[in-house]
Amino acid sequence: MHLSPFFKKYQIELCTGRKDENEKERIWRLHFVPFTGCERLYKGNFYYPVFLKNSCENFVFLVEHLKDVFEVKFGTLELCIGVEIDDVKMKPYVEWMNDFNWESGKVPALSVIARDEPSLKFLLKNLKRDVDQMKIDTYIRKENPASKSGGNPKCSTPVNFKVDVLTGNGEEWWATETMKSMDAIRMDFYQSDLSNLDMNQFLRSWKEGASNERLKEIKLPLRERVKWRTMLEGLDADLRDFRTARKIFRFAKDNQLYQLHGGFDITRADGRIATIGHELYNLIFENQPMEQYKIEECTRISRVWNLEQGDEEEEIEDVIVLEEADGHVADWRKYQRKQGRRHIFMIVW
């Protein structure tokens, strides 16, 4: 069963599915729309609108009833939060998630599309149930006059729930305190507002054993180019020789085997070791040779790391040397490698 509140044309969509006698999955979608008295009733092949005077108050009853009728398990709870959704409208759904008798004891999957910062903050602040898989995509415009609060909308306070797998877009809401309190096993973001100093704060907490004991994987880009001296300051990080230090592993979300060349090792207080590095430069597919530009970048990182004066880091790491290529190809490679200096991974062995 997929639950999708807060879409523009209707307030709630309940999508249920089960297999018929021919083992084909059948899907029912029902729209629960706030009643205004001027709606046109329409029934299509896949959608059936149900008009209610207050769909929020009837939400729990409807979910329980449809679950019994269709005898299906919950799939993904989807929340599409726009600027028209305030705390009053959010509250019934958050309370339902907290109080519902989830089969595993936690929300199986929660997908959030947020276009409004205060409502996203309300969700993060008031959700009390742990989540198995959580994806948050944000489309918040800071200059949007409809936003109910100004300034930086990043959520810098701890939350009251844990997440096993956390993915999506970390812009506008994700901060180190959120990372620590969510205590995710795996984090995979395609964008974030984190800086080198933010990551240093997070890694210090992890190293000291103060947070994120469950952590196994991180993949994310910083908002700026990685500066290893800044990020790893005070962590006693050990730079592994990319020419001799090699490990074979796979990320949890795919079956592809990777070779890890080099990277920085950090030892936690309990003895566990994590390796952190560049996703583009330190990782290659199994049984493939290490390309020349990756060798050059790893050599450059080693040279910068071993400098006695850190003020040369800017000049050296801002240089990108390209092999001969056509104009568009050269531009793309330069962009790719420049972006690659923002993306990091972390594996806890």
TrEMBL record:
Q: Which InterPro entries match?
A: F-box_Sdz-33 (IPR012885)
Superkingdom of source: Eukaryota
Domain spans labelled Sdz-33 F-box: 167-219
**Protein name, please?**
Sdz-33 F-box domain-containing protein
What is the scientific name of the source organism? Caenorhabditis nigoni
